[in-house]
TrEMBL record:
Keywords, comma-separated and alphabetical: Glycosyltransferase, Membrane, Transferase, Transmembrane, Transmembrane helix
Annotated PANTHER family: CELLULOSE SYNTHASE CATALYTIC SUBUNIT A [UDP-FORMING]
Membrane-related topology note: Multi-pass membrane protein
Full protein name: Glycosyltransferase 2-like domain-containing protein
Residues spanning the membrane: 112-132, 152-178, 457-478, 498-520, 532-554, 590-614, 626-646, 696-714
Naturally occurring in which organism (per UniProt): Cladonia borealis
Length: 715
């Protein structure tokens, strides 16, 4: 293998440069384990100008990048390396461990079947849209034939559309499954590495949790003189200060910083803390980092964290930000609240990365400092500063990267209330970012966005807004049932038969699609995500109305922020020794956290089904009774049953909360560094067969629809 030495003569360096071919930026490394190459790379901003008065001029200059020459001695090594341009004082060596960065998450057989999901998604979406169009056609035909209007039928169509749209939008991203990301599993080798400033933001989290993250960051596999760690404490904890000072004796590159927050002056939450940290890095002793990394207080970085992320930025000088997924070690068995976010982590984000729309995940990311300078700083004015930051970078023409490896593990909120606060905070942040970016449609801050990038920003904002309409449609369904109006209109018996067949086809294709589409995340995790869309919708809807619509005298409220680790549990429901009694759990979840909406909805739906069924039982003939039941409460796929099952989640959670082991039982401590890392068994969600109710119900619905389909050919 050809590795350029720092002691190479100018003649040797010139000889190498004479053989390289100018390449296009952003094509990635383009190497395989059996095809080692040497690639030259010029940093976008030289060290002399990066942090001085000439930095803005440097940012305006075109970054240079050279191609590669093939090594004639490729048989000498089975790994791939990249060397920094010999004209610069350092060389960076990068090893390719695997052709895909997600080899640890997706087995080859799953990857093969997953590729079919692109076709299956198109088939499922097309069949549903055709079925919907036919529903509209038969309703219009029935109105013409009977010279009347069927408002209940139209409301029912809208209800079904509202419930299907969020799922359809999320699934449509999978059309691009076949688009290759071309992202390898890379490692930065050796001690010649870029300087990085690591910012750890804290705000009242458990001190042991913070210190474990700090120790893990100090103990990463990276030369100690090439990175600095700043603990940015918005909680102003004197105890944490003393602990960090004590650790500083062991890790001289560790610093504690806290800012003054003047009452009445906006401090911009986490974004403000990060910007404070950026200013501190410029005035603290030591070399200022070309790259800046950020960690949440509860996120434990793995030893290879920086060595895994930085190569993707070194081989692409236009990559302004690279981020790994946020993974968790304390997700409860069966993940009843869908806290693991597996669909987003293992399906949505890799697809977005392939389209050039990788978003910052909030922790563990690395950003190029000169890229950050082009947008001024970490954007303030939104509690979703991570998504806003990455979108602004894309709008400036930088690229972002999603590194699909397990490089950090943190904690999900430990109780129901904290989970709701976290998710509704994300909703607020999403809409704040969408408003500032004008839904990614126009404006100077998004002028260089590509079409997929604009589409992503628009669709995620629309899906968030749809929670309002989904909530309205959910409560409209039992109202329509009670009204007694004709919910499925048709002009002839043949039209009814074809409606049943069309519904069966759309449902069956969707079922098959789910088995393929959910493979990277796990089938059960994918189903939990679908149910979470339903039962979380009222929370998102109420939050948006309170924050963005209602005045204060009608219950409106200003944006509030509370970091996950500092949300204190009232119930401690996941600790079998300390959990509150069931009566208190029900009171807090139903009243304090508005689970009463879910209970009222369930009772409303069940009452509506009973009223509708009793009304149908009074029809004069057996055939009319069956058709009435079919076209009202039991029209496939029995939407009310799907809604009730999903909205039952908060109540069943209060009655039977999951048990989660103590942190020390989920972690194992390194005897040398004293860092507690997650056990292998804690890194994955444990699914138990005892939680098979939802799948049993889904299977019954499948059998019911199939029997209706068969019956449509017989009767």
């Amino acid at each position: 293998m050809d590795i350029i030495s720092n002691s190479s003569t100018a003649e040797a360096s010139q000889g190498l440069i004479d053989h390289v071919v100018e390449g296009k930026a952003g094509r990635g490394l383009g190497v395989t384990a059996s095809d080692p190459i040497t690639q030259t790379y010029i940093s976008p901003c030289s060290p002399e100008t990066l942090y001085g008065t000439q930095s803005l001029q440097c940012l305006a200059e075109k970054c240079q990048k050279f191609g590669h020459e093939r090594c004639d001695r490729s048989s000498e090594s089975s790994s791939s390396m990249v060397a920094l341009n010999p004209r610069l004082p350092h060389q960076y060596l990068i090893e390719s461990l695997a052709p895909r960065d997600d080899v640890d998450f997706l087995k080859p057989w799953k990857r093969y079947l997953y590729f079919f999901s692109s076709v299956l998604v198109m088939a499922a979406c097309t069949s549903y849209l055709l079925y919907l169009c036919f529903r509209i056609h038969t309703t219009l035909a029935a109105q013409r034939a009977n010279h009347t209007i069927y408002p209940a039928a139209w409301i029912f169509i809208v209800v079904e559309m509202a419930s299907a749209t969020p799922v359809l939008v999320n699934s449509l991203w999978s059309v691009f499954v076949l688009k290759s990301r071309g992202r390898q599993k890379l490692r930065l080798k050796g001690n010649t590495v870029p300087v990085v400033d690591v910012l750890i933001t804290t705000c009242g989290e458990d001190e042991d949790t913070i210190l474990n993250t700090v120790r893990a960051a100090c103990s990463i596999d990276y030369p100690a003189d090439r990175f600095r760690i700043f603990v940015l404490d918005d909680g102003r904890s004197s105890s944490l200060f003393r602990s960090v000072v004590a650790l500083n004796r062991q890790y001289p590159n560790l610093y504690y910083r806290t800012r003054e927050k003047i009452p009445g002056v906006p401090h911009h939450f986490k974004a403000g803390n990060l910007n404070f940290g950026l200013r501190e890095t410029m005035t603290t002793k030591g070399e200022v980092g070309e790259f800046v990394a950020a960690l949440d207080a509860d996120m434990i970085p793995q030893p290879e964290w920086l060595r895994a992320i930085l190569p993707h930025m070194l081989v692409d000088e236009n990559c302004g930000l690279a981020c790994p997924p946020q993974l968790f070690y304390n997700v409860p068995p069966n993940d009843p609240l869908y806290q693991g976010l597996d669909f987003f982590v293992h399906i949505s984000e890799p697809i977005k990365d392939a389209l050039g729309v990788a978003w910052c995940t909030g922790s563990g990311y690395v950003v190029r400092r000169c890229a950050l300078d082009t947008i001024g700083q970490i954007p303030e004015g939104s509690v979703a500063e991570d998504v806003l930051c990455s979108t602004l970078l894309l709008g400036r023409g930088w690229r972002t990267a999603y590194i699909h490896e397990g490089l950090q593990y943190g904690q999900v909120p430990g109780d129901y209330g904290s989970h709701i606060k976290q998710r509704t905070r994300w909703t607020i942040g999403t809409m704040q970012a969408a408003g500032r970016l004008r839904f990614s449609l126009w404006g100077s801050e998004t002028r260089r966005l590509t079409f997929p990038q604009r589409l992503s920003g628009l669709l995620y904002a629309i899906v968030t807004l749809l929670n309002i309409f989904l909530t309205i449609s959910m409560f409209s369904l039992p109202g329509v049932l009670i009204s007694g109006g004709r919910m499925v209109a048709y002009a002839t018996s043949d039209q009814l038969r074809w409606l049943i067949r069309g519904c069966w086809l759309a449902f069956t294709l969707n079922r098959i699609c789910e088995f393929s589409l959910f493979l990277p995340a796990g089938y059960r995790n994918g189903q939990r995500g679908t149910r979470a869309i339903v039962w979380m919708a009222p929370y998102h809807a109420i939050t948006m109305l309170r924050v963005f619509v209602l005045p204060s005298w009608l219950g409106g409220q200003a944006t509030s922020f509370k970091p996950t680790g500092s949300l204190k549990s009232e119930l401690k429901e996941r600790n079998p020794r300390e959990r509150a009694p069931v009566s208190k759990r029900l009171k807090v979840i139903l009243w304090n956290y508005l689970g009463c909406f879910h209970l009222i909805y369930i009772l409303f739906v069940l009452a509506a089904v009973i009223v509708s069924s009793v009304r149908c039982s009074r029809q004069p003939t057996r055939n009319e009774r069956l058709i009435c039941l079919l076209t009202h409460a039991f029209w496939p796929p029995v939407s009310w049953l799907v809604y009730v099952s999903a909205t039952w989640t908060p109540i069943i959670y209060a009655l039977k909360p999951p048990t989660v082991a103590d942190n020390e039982d989920l972690l194992e401590r390194d005897p040398i560094t004293n860092v507690a890392y997650p056990k292998e068994s804690s890194k994955y969600i444990r699914n138990k067969l005892s939680n098979g109710y939802f799948e049993f119900q889904y299977s019954l619905i499948t059998i019911y629809i199939t029997s209706m389909f068969v019956g449509s050919w017989i009767y």
